[in-house]
Amino acid sequence: MPDVLASRPLRRSGLRVEHGRECHVLRDQAGSLALALNESALALWELCDGETTEEEMVAAVSEACKIPASQAARDVSEALERFTSLGLVDWQQPVGREASQ
Description:
Layout: E1 8-11, E2 15-19, E3 24-28, E4 34-37, H1 39-47, H2 54-65, H3 69-85, E5 89-92
């Protein structure tokens, strides 16, 4: 996985989420990919906007799911690794002031 301190995940275009009662399904346009997402994975998916850092994602998931930050960090890391290995996210370098720090 890329250096998450220097880059941020961005959802790949052409993917859509179908919302269900108990889970959500992420699909590509060709229909060759279907990935079930629970509520926390869906929340994380929505944070893959190319601007949000992994640290910010951990804080958001910890708060939203009412879990310790250490557990959220593991969950976020595992989910981002899965999203990356499946080619669902591209990694963006930060731009502007943050990139030069």
